[in-house]
Amino acid sequence: MMAKNYQGIHFGTDYYPEHWPRERWETDARLMQEMGIQVVRMAEFSWHKMEPREGQYDFDWLEEAITLLAQYGIKSILGTPSAAPPAWMINKHPDILPIDRQGRRRGFGGRHHDCQSNATYRKYITGMVTAMAKRFADNPNVIGWQTDNELGNSHGDLCMCDSCRRSFQGWLEKKYGTIEALNAAWGTHFWSQEYNSFEEIFAPLITVTGENPSTMLDWKCFCSDLIVDFQQMQIDIIRKYCPNHFITHNCMAFADKVNYFDLNKELDFASHDQYPGGFYAVMPHEYNHDMAANLDITRGFKHQTFWIMEQESGITGWEIMGRATRPGQLAAWAEQSIAHGADAIVFFRWRTCTAGTEQYWHGILPHSGNPGRRYDELKQMIARMQPVMDEIEGSMPRSEVAIVFSYRQEYAIQIQPQHPDLNYLTQVKKYYKELYRRNVPVDFVQDTDDFGKYKLLIAPLQYLMTPELAQRYFDYVKGGGRLVLTMRTGVKDAHNICMSDRELPGTLGELCGIEICDYDCLRDVLVKLDTSNLQVESAQVNVISERETGVESAAGCAGSKWADIITLKGAESLADYASEYYAGSPCITQNHYGDGAAYYVGTEPEEALMEQLMDKLLADAEVKSLGASEPGVELAIREKDGSKWLFAINFNEEAATYEVPADFEIVQGEVKGTLKPYEMHLYKKFS
Ligand code: GLA
Ligand code: ZN
User: Fold this and answer.
1) Which positions are annotated as active-site residues?
2) Which of 515, 512, 607, 533 lies closest to 577, judged by CA?
3) pLDDT tens-place string over residues 45-83
4) 218 CB within 6 A, ligand 1
5) Residue 492: what pLDDT?
6) Contact at 8 Å (CB) between 227 and 155?
7) Minimal-distance CA residue to ligand 1 atom 7
8) Phi, psi torsion values for 287, nearest 5 degrees
9) Is the CB of 14 under 6 A from ligand 1?
10) Quick check: 152 pLDDT over 70?
11) 211: Cβ below 6 Å to ligand 1?
């Protein structure tokens, strides 16, 4: 196999040479080189600089920057500037500006002020991307491309203009074929919403009251497809002129405007923008698992290692700011990204900018441009990591546990949360967090992926059910898998219509050995549980993480938001309700089926319950933890060709301990088992 042109590149920065005087560029390049920077990303917001007037392309400045950087050994990635159409274009074609749900046209002056179906805008993009691609195709110092920037970001709703409405109609016609089929799928008999033709269908502008959940689900899926198509148009051009360059896109983990599994399909690798500091007053431990989850889902988009295209490099802030990053914290966060599968870390941004919205989103260099604490810290980190990155490159964790992540389920729950606080992502992350704090590696998978390699599969809120998906779950369990399904599973069909042919959870009732004929939406109340059947002998629990959880004892076990009142049809109960009129009815069940087992969790587990439930699940599935650690210390692993690298990272401001892994050799770090604040230890096990 031919080596990829990005192999061996591991550290970079996002650079905006056009923001600074030409005389400064050389200093920047030298400082970057001294720091160990190998690559920059440039130009993703520089449309006006590259086409100041219609048709007058100017790439000279960019080429000059690329050439200068190359003299310092630095390669370039170019961003297509389609997230920032310039004022001349908008004035000439105001219909490029998007229309929001209220029917208002959004103005110029921010970014992402573009309708993605607009034919005129697409023509301009075709012109720009073609010109850029042709110009840089043979430049030996350009290695790849980033399409647009954080597609799907920046507008609450996607555009609802006439052009988008027509595209939606076309998308629906392709999906349903006939208007009768659409009427049936959407249940338009309700409130006289039948359509006589596809041309009658609207974009879902704000209504007087209510909306059709089926329409909304299709709209969200359409918007996602539109973004994928918008990107594809750019990919096609770049592939044509630059067959040797890679193409990627900087995603945002769990942002939901576009299905990232789809968006990444035609890309060489996924990229992610990681900002642990966010706008938080402090970066509490509460968020460590969120950061890890961001990285794990990014790895899941292609089941492949990935790049961080923007890694935090200082205080975050637009109008308000987060806290200063503690000494060592930026390095620890970057190492966390590597630990979860990043092969390259590009820091955002090189130098803090002086103008515009992001004046307080701090770069490696401060406003003054003088290297300081952050520069030194990251320079040291690069010097430490660079020597091991080549061998680690391409290695992946071999997770025994997977969580199913589905945009369609998420959309459907967003459209009708049922309980006001029921949130798909929150639910997914509750399960994730419990695994994270036990140092159990997790993969995120699509519901169409291969489940077979996982010992434990957690599929929260499988609200929309199709015969095909149900079959996949049956097959997984039959083959020996352990599957966790939860409340609100099997409620609706693929079109977001309630199913009525049997009791909940529909066809999966047979797999779970249960039936649900009654349920309670737990408004402002927790339901108590008796979990005596859930207890596992501690000897069986092969994962222990010593931590003060503050969690109450078994007596304090509770569920929130929802209570499925379960009738056993072959399953055994692991936990019964202990309050409400359904006290004594099962809430959590287990059913042996084929060679495996299906668990059903009829509520959203509060912390103590989740802890017990996970003890049981991991013990049953014989899943191993990477080891025990104090709170705020994370263990993560990457493996390749029989070699394994184990990372121990301390996110605490104090020293903290972890269980030293057996049979591993320490390759970075001094006192095995004890980490200084924000320190990382790296272990290796040879094949
Ligand atoms: C995002 C964008 C960047 C920048 C940073 C900081 O991740 O991709 O262009 O806006 O956030 O706000
Ligand atoms: Zn539009």
Assistant:
1) 150, 310
2) 533
3) 999 999 999 999 999 999 999 999 999 999 999 999 999
4) no
5) 98
6) no
7) 273
8) -100, -5
9) no
10) yes
11) no
